[in-house]
Amino acid sequence: MTKEDRGHYAKKHPPGNKVNKTLAEAVEKRAGKGKMGCAVAFDIAAHLGVSPAEVGFTIDMLEIRLIKCQLGLFGYESGKKIVQATENVPESLEKAIRDELTGENLSCATAWKIADEFRVGKMGVSSACETLGVKIKPCQLGAF
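-> structure tokens emitted (144 positions)
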């Protein structure tokens, strides 16, 4: 999404899709100043037993800005990603990442899975991806 498109998140979705009222109320209750952190969105999904994608759709439809990606890819004060390339990537981690690529991309969900498997932080995997030149997408919340 370009800077010019910011604030028009609902346009990403086809017209006619309905927002779940209970979910919308939960999102509105926890959104601060028109923004919501990635971790908060996942917490809502877990508490309500819905998918992160459904929460992301609701956030978009309510024109709430998603911030503080847990992989460090967007939504920080600088307006840019905070994840940095790591000095070196262990061979086993590189293999796990490359084995899970879809085309040239690693999905956000798979990055999280690899982080769990290797017992490293989510940004540890995104840092490795930066070093390897691997793009992480799609986002589980639909941000990218």
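Residues 26 and 47 are 10 Å apart (CA to CA).
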